[in-house]
Amino acid sequence: MSPPAEAGAFEGFPEGTIEFLRGLTANNEKPWFDAHRQAYEAFYVAPALAFIAAIGPRLQAEVDGATRFAEEKRIPVPRPAQGMRGGRKPRVRQDPRS
Questions:
Q1: How far is it, in rounded angstroms, from Cα 41 to Cα 31?
Q2: Model confidence over 36-90: pLDDT tens digits?
Q3: pTM value?
Q4: Which residue among 26, 56, 67, 78 sits deepest, i.e. has the most Cβ atoms within 10 Å of its Cβ?
Q5: Could you tell me the residue ranges of all domains in the chain?
């Protein structure tokens, strides 16, 4: 596995990422991971951080645009589903004998 050509702007994950992840899948043990930590940093962490740096301003612009003209300036936060069935309250069946 050779490291990516250059660090900086996000240009996708390098081809070595898939090879590293396959190796990790086959050898999911700490000694193997420790021996391949440089590959992890080069093929997984560095591109992921570049992706976050590249997409961060776009996400911030989306949040700013969503709240800019709103009366309430709080950022909408999704609420966890209540109960089962996609957030609907579960049905309570009545006993037909009563």
A1: 16
A2: 999 999 999 999 999 888 888 777 777 666 666 666 666 656 666 544 455 555 5
A3: 0.53
A4: 67
A5: 16-68
